[in-house]
Every structure is written in structure tokens, then in C-alpha cells.
Amino acid sequence: MKARVVLILVAAIVIAVPVVMQIKSRREPAPPEAGIPQTLAEDRAHRVSDLRYDVMLSIPERRDQPIPGKLTATFTLREAGESLAFDFAQPVEKLLAVTANGDALTPRIENGHIVIPESALEEGANTVTFAFHAGEESLNRNDEFLYALFVPARASLAMPVFDQPDLKARWTLTLEVPHDWRAVSNGAEASRQIDALRQTMRFAETQPLSTYLFSFAAGKFDVEQGERNGRTFRFLHRETDAAKVARNRDAIFDLHATAVAWLEDYTGIAYPFGKFDFVLIPSFQFGGMEHPGAVFYNASSLLLDEAATQNQMLGRASLIAHETAHMWFGDLVTMTWFNDVWMKEVFANVMAAKIVNPSFPEVNHELRFLFSHYPSAYDVDRTEGANPIRQELANLNEAGSLYGAIIYQKAPIAMRQLELLIGAETMRDGLRAYLRGHAYGNATWSDLVALLDARTGADLRAWSEAWIEGRGRKGLERFQDSLLHPVTLAPGAVLPNGDGVGYGDFALDAATLDYLTTSLHRIEDPLTRGAALVTLWENMLEGRVPASRVLDTLLTSLAVEQNELLVTQMLSYLREAFWRFTPAAERPALAPRVEAVVRRGLEGAASTSLKTTWFNTIRSVATTPETVTWLERVWRRDILIPGVPLSEADEAELALDLAVRDVPAAEEILRTQLSRFTNPDRKARFTFVMPAVSRDAEVRAAFFESLKDVNNRRREAWVLEAARYLHHPLRADGSARFIRPALELVHEIQRTGDIFFPKRWADATLSGHQSAEAAATVRTFIDGLPGDYPPRLKWVLLASADPLFRAAR
């Protein structure tokens, strides 16, 4: 009966768009090249205006059944004497019928485009209708739910559209779904019809949105609702732990309301998209995605456990503020082309910091900015894979490779420097004018520079050429002279960037290095101590001080450090120094000292947040039989750690950590953990990852082989967790054989996966390796890449390989 309802809709679609193969012209225009070439996008943006999409999708309950759809595009066309291409990157059999202005056309797809001949088009108003089976690569279809994720140009994987950011459209969506599902989209729900098996929901027309910002989610979700400042917020979720939902619910609504109110005041523009819903998605690919009126979040980032750390609480507030800021920066005003995608991300980050900081007065926010941005930006900018903040982009099929630490971490540093250069008030006034002048439209970096340049005597074009167009850490010195504040630490020992504002490779002399490695913990000011820590680490990576000496410094400092931000960053460096920069043969002798310091830190921590930070580090570095046995007793619930309540997710991770260490009871631990789950999504993820920690090398090899099938890589968060265990340092000898075939997959992953997947896949693949042999394998692979290999993807590989190259040296 359920299948019959779906077939009725398919029949209705086909009847509404009869497959009468008539065309007005025999001319067969040459299709555009694959992807979304910039030349094609510019031509369409010039010719098409007043665009509207009316979309209807019928989602079956069973995941193995196709999703029938119908899309009607109405638009005004200039220069109708040429053909017009829609984007639909699917096999021709998924396109069922096409009509243009009432005439049926022969469905034809070439290079991912449906070409409408000029004879079917008219100057002025046009209507084109498509009946199709939706492509599912960007619909993230699970057994009980799905969600559309179309950034950067993946809407055309699902349906025929003009898939480019500067052809904004007003969208109307109708969804037919199982009767017990919930659904959300950008527009408010306008109507709903329900029968015993199905329900049809129609959502109101949206404001103008780019294709990558249109979205919907549907499935077996629960709904929470709250009102703040006269505005209703709703979120959909699949969390089975009612206490966890109740514990986080008010904070989530409060944080959204605070962000909206702050941004309305800062921009002088009321929230521009009507209703505000969001969806908490298990194992979501990103932290969040800013679809107006239907923001998506990774559920674990918002629904925090009882033992959440200070960093996690700050991270949640920052994430919510970041996605809310996108409603203005990115959604209201959108970049014209994805070479300026960094703009929306940098201003979302900058605004998030301004929003969140007053709510956490106990936190040193300058120190947090330092740790949140500089180490990650340096991780790319110091490497052969360094890339400019703003990059040229000829085709949107490579837009995903623009994303990364340079956009998310270096660009906010650049914007802070710009604000210091021109003043906070000038920055705000320029941004207000920018948002008002381009509301519901598109703009470029040059548009904003022109606005700011008119308000200041600074040479912003020269500044932009160095900071935004430049690559790496060189060439920035002349713009930072007035921002550097050297601090004398001791006679002859000077820290050039004492307040952490300066950005670059600050080579320290022997006297300063000697002071830092012996007396880092004696520096009184936390911000200076943090700047010294980051600078010391960078000097270690550049070979100016041995890793073993820095590791000694970390252990000495951790024994007395009380600042949670500093403890967290030191522990991060400690894990990296232990696993990556300590030779495997030397770890057994070092491990007892490392574990003793971390265990004492756990015992002496004054807060649940700090205790959790220390405990997570013990889980990471544990190798001695004594500590591994202790962790097993914790997992078995024989030992309870005061102040560290373990959640279901914590116990699952601990079970995997024990298995990768080949504890005798590994198989029993994994089976028992499976029986403990109450949440089906967490259980499914654990089941997927389990083969990656098997003690049987052939099971692990078979699992790796399975990842070559794109269908087994759809749940990217699961895949990345499994890859990190597969390449764990304790399994490095056995997993070295997977390095080259994993790198060979990166180009395909870039074509088939979401925006962060290629870099994260490469990072996970190389994360556990330090040997000269592994480094040689990677270097040989990169050096042997063909001349037509995408340059940005090569940068990704070089950046991911940099820690391995340094460790091997």
C-alpha cells in the first residue's frame, strides 16, 4: 500500500509533464563542460533574473526506493537566441520528462547539464518543468531520516537547477513523507495533509536564496520549542537520552536568542528570514551549516554531556553564534563566486567572537583567540601546501578544496589585524553599508574593500594583496610593525610577539629558547605564556630545538599549570609530541613519566571540565599495562572517577581505545558495548567502526578495501573515525600498506564527498605515521602526480603530509 502511494505520485508527475518528444529545432548545441564552469555561471547570471523554483519530492519510507520529484523553474530571460543549460549531474535515466513553455522536449543530459535549445525559449518570461528521480548523493539518506546538504554546488546532484551562488531564487517546497515523519525547510510550514500512510507538507516561499543554502530535512525526529524575546525557536533531534535534551535545551535557545539580538544591533538590520528552526543531526559532516530558517548542527556539538569541558561549552556558544551570524554574512549577502567563500566564514567567526566573549567573563578571550586560530593556521601556512585566503576558481567542481584552516583560522587573524588598522567603528560602519547595499543579493571582496577604503587613509589594497592574496607567512611583516609587542622574559631572552597578536615564523635565539624550555611555567601573564608556548612549538617544528626538550618542558609546565585554556593546549601538544615526534622505540621508556603527570593532573583538577580534559588525554596516551588495565576497569564500571560521569558516547570511544591496544578481552568488550547502546544512531556508528580496531589484520584490510566503494563512504564522520583507528600509531606498521591507496582515493573523494572530506581523509590516513618509510611513500606519490592533478588538491596533500615529513626528518 505504501509503494502504491508513491507510484501514484510518479504517475501524476509524468501525466503533468507528458513525454511527447517534440522540439522546435533540430539543432543540438554543444553542452558546457562538466561541473559549473565560471564562464557558464557568468553567462547565466547575465541572462537569467526573477528566478523561482517550485519543488515537489515524494520520499518513500524505504531507503531502497527512488525519490520521485518535480521542479518548475520560472524566470525572466534576456538574449533568448542562445540555448540555456540547467545543471543535473545524474544519469539520463533519472530525468523522466522536460517541458519548456508548454512544449515537451527530449530529455538529454550531457556533462551533467540539461541543455534547453534556444527554439524552446522566449525573451522575457519562461517556465521550464522537470520530472525526475532525485539523485541521492547530497541527500544523506538514512533508514529513518535524510537531510539535504548542497554546499558548495551539490544541489544539482539532487535536482535540475542553476547551481551557482549568484543566481538566487525564491523557493517553494512540497514534501510527501511517511505519516510519522517530521520535516523542516527554509520556509515556514504553510499547510499539511495527512492520511493513514503519508503526509504532504507545503512550505512557504522563501526570500531569495542561493542553491547551496536551500535545504530540508525529514525523518523520525522529536521537536523541542522555546520562545525568546518574542521569537519562537524550534529544533528537531534524534537523541534518546531525555535527560541530556532537558539539560541542554534552555541553553541552546538562549544562545540563539542572544546571537540574534546582538547581530540585529550590530548590523542595524532585523533578522532577515522570518522563522528560525534548526536540526541536530547525528554524525553531521560539519559543525554546522547555515541554511536560513533551517540551520543544521552536529548533534554532539550542541547536546553536551554532563562532563563537558570549558572548551566544549565555549565551542557550542561560538558555533551557534557563527551559524547565526551567517544569516547576515553569507545568507543575506552572498559571495558572487566561491573564490570569496572565505568572506562569509571570516565574518561569521569574527562576529561569533564578539557575541560570545561577554557571556564568558571568566575566560581570557585573547588567549582563547590565540589557541583557536594560530596553531591551526600555522599547520597549513608553514607547509608546502600553504594557500592564499582568496583563490581563483575556474569551476565549482573544485570549490570544496577552498575550505580549510586558512579560511577558518588565518582569515579571522587577518580581519582582527584589519580592524586594529582601521578601527572597530570604521569596520562596523563599512559592514553595515555593505549589508544594506547588497541585501538579498551578491557581492565580492572588492566591493567591501572599496567601502572600507573610502573610510580610512590606510592602503587597504596593498594590505589585501599581502594578507588575502598572498600565500604563506612571508611578506606580512610591514603590516605588523605597529602590532608587535616584544616582551623581555629575562636578560637576553626576548619574545617578539608577547601578546600573541603578531602572525609569522618568529625564529628565537638560543638564549630565548633556553629560557622557554626551562622556565615557560614561570612567565606570569597567561597570554604571554600562551604566546610563548605556541612560538616554542613552532620553533621545534622548524628544527631549532629538539622535540624531546619541548616534551620535557610540557611535562614540567603541566605539573603546575592551572589555566584551563593553557592546560588544554599543552595537552594537545603533549599528545602530538608523544605519538608523532617521539620515536616508537623510545615511547616505552617515556610512557610511565607521561602517564604519571597526566594521572596527577586528573586527580588534582578542580573542575569537571578540567578533569574531563585530563581524562581524555589519559585515554589517548595510555600504553603501560597498569594504565591500560585501569582504563579497562573504568570501562567495566568497576572504577568511577569522581567528577567525570561517562556518557554512552564516552564509553564507546573508550571501548575502541582498549581494542586498538589489543587488550586480551577486546572482542568481549566490543560485544558488550554493542549491548549497552540505547541510541540507535550511536550503535550504528560503533558497528561501522568496529572492524577498524580488529586485532585481525585481514579484517582491517578488508574494511579498508570496502572504503573504496563510494557507497561505504557516505557517512563521512564514521569513515574518518574508523580511518584514525585504522592508522593509530600502535597499528602504524600494519597500516603503512594502506597509505598509497588511501592517497589515490583523495581525488575521487574530492569529487564525491563533502567539502572537508578530502583534507580530513588525508589527515586521518597520515595521523598515526612517523617513519621515514611512510614519509617516502607519501613524497613519491605526491612527486609522481600527473600534471593535470588539481593544484589545490596537491596543496591539501602537502599540508596533511607536513607533520609526517617533519617527524621523519
Structural class, judged by helices and strands?
Answer: alpha+beta
Mean pLDDT: 94
Rounded to the nearest angstrom, the radius of gyration is 27 Å
Q: Which regions contain 5 or more consecutive residues with pLDDT less than 50?
A: 1-27
Query: Strand-residue fraction?
Result: 15-25%
For the largest beta sheet, what order do the strands appear in spatially? Answer: 5-4-8-2-1-10-13-12
Main sheet overview: 8 strands, mixed
First-residue to last-residue Cα separation: 66 Å
> How many β-strand runs?
23
Percent in helix: 40-55%
DSSP summary: helix tally: 29
Bulk shape: globular
Task: Give the helix/strand layout.
Blueprint lengths: L1 H15 L21 H10 E11 L9 E10 L6 E4 L7 E6 L2 E3 L3 E2 L2 E4 L7 E10 L11 E3 L22 E9 L3 E4 L3 E6 L3 E6 L12 E4 L2 E7 L2 E7 L4 H26 L8 E6 L6 E2 L4 E5 H4 L7 H16 L7 E3 L5 H16 L8 H17 L23 H18 L1 H14 L3 E3 L1 H9 L6 H8 L19 E4 L2 E3 L14 H10 L6 H16 L5 H12 L5 H16 L7 H18 L3 H14 L3 H11 L12 H13 L5 H11 L3 H10 L7 H10 L9 H11 L5 H4 L3 H6 L1 H7 L4 H10 L5 H12 L7 H18 L1
Parallel strand pairs: 1-10, 16-17, 17-19, 20-21
Antiparallel strand pairs: 1-2, 2-8, 3-7, 4-5, 4-8, 6-7, 9-14, 10-13, 11-14, 12-13, 15-16, 18-19, 22-23
Characteristics of this structure?
alpha+beta; single chain; five-stranded mixed β-sheet; 809 residues
Would you mind describing this structure in some detail?
There is one protein chain. Helix 3 links the parallel strand 16 and strand 17. 45% of the residues lie in helices and 15% in strands. The N terminus is likely disordered. It is globular and about 80 Å long. The chain has 29 helices and 23 strands. It is of the alpha+beta class and 809 residues long. It has an eight-stranded mixed beta sheet with strand order 5-4-8-2-1-10-13-12. Strands 15-16-17-19-18 form a five-stranded mixed beta sheet.
